Amino acid sequence: MTDILDELRWRGLMAQSTDIGALRAALAEGPVTYYCGFDPTAPSLHHGHLVQLIVMRHLQQAGHHPLALVGGATGMIGDPRMSGERQLNDKDTVAGWTDRLRGQIERFLDFEGENGARMVNNLDWIGGLTTIDFLRDVGKHFRLGTMLAKDTVARRLESDEGISFTEFSYQILQGLDFLELFRRYGCTLQTGGNDQWGNLTAGVDLVRKAEGASAHVLTTPLVTKADGTKFGKSEGGAIWLDADMFSPYAFYQFWLNADDADVVRFLKIFTFRSREEIEELERAVSEAPGAREAQRALAEDVTTLVHGPDATERVRRASQALFGRDDLRELDPATLRDAVAELPQGPAEVGRSTVMDLLVATGLEKGRNAARRTISSGGAYLNNEKVTDEEQLLRTEDLLAGGYALLRKGRKNLAVATVDEA
Fold this sequence. Notes:
Pfam families: SYY_C-terminal, tRNA-synt_1b
Catalytic activity: tRNA(Tyr) + L-tyrosine + ATP = L-tyrosyl-tRNA(Tyr) + AMP + diphosphate + H(+)
EC number: 6.1.1.1
Family: Belongs to the class-I aminoacyl-tRNA synthetase family. TyrS type 1 subfamily.
CATH topology of the largest domain: Rossmann fold
Number of strands: 12
Strand order of the largest sheet: 3-2-1-4-5
Protein name: Tyrosine--tRNA ligase
């Protein structure tokens, strides 16, 4: 491997550092103990957290010691947003979400060996901190002018809703995390998103003032699409890493649908493929974009990273089966349900609905005459079998798991007829 900072920069995973020369020297002398924090303000991590987990993994593979912090304390407050106060969640909710996030994070890091990862929870040191100790031992190191100048704080102060003392104090608590991890584990590097710069540097300043020691910050840039628009939103909202909140099939399809202008950059950021492999895929995008080889590599790698190889194989087969390249009946019910969840749907009755009816009911055709023409021209399929009889009825044996029947018009237009099995 090249110098780890050069590797991260080539991959588009570096934005800012407090002192790049000093950090490079520290990493070269190594190993360095570093941490990244994840607040349980939701029951799952999302694609933005994925970037941070990948950075942590790169650093661990380069021989450094990771600390993964789940903010059981800071999660009860929440990092200030650019607009509007966060809703405060109760202790039991935050505790439950803390456990869920720990389980997600553990899949990305190696907890064995000389530089095995360690999970930490800031509730362990913040939970028992008295108000007097907080003000005397921590608060005295912070200056209001510096705190008020933080970008998020400044914007909130200029807004109509302002900012509460609770959220204003968040940067002190995050700074305390860095100090505590420095004292407990010799941690000297914190990583995070570039939008967190102010909170991250608060920890560097606190370590310097309280301990007279040097510490470092390394941030990642905000990932955007080639056209400058925000990356990482689906029709249903965030790209969650939890399979129950965003199915592995939908997750796979999200990456598979990456634009040609974005896919090489996403391969660098979100996969661990070598430079040579990515350069080869870049040539494939240029020479044969229709094959979408790079998109398939991206979807398979990221889905495997997040959900595991078995889930990736199931959704890959489902994706193929929808278009007749694998057997629909071999898909498990959950994967089939996820695969058809975003398709147009229409009601059907076994023994009464004809394929012509179903083409209209699902919206694949606007009327019976159009449906009749599609069937006669050989462009209608039921469960990937070509339909030649416009009066063909839907039979019980046509139903897939969950009461579905897959309809296709031409090569790419899909819909699902559903039968109420109750």
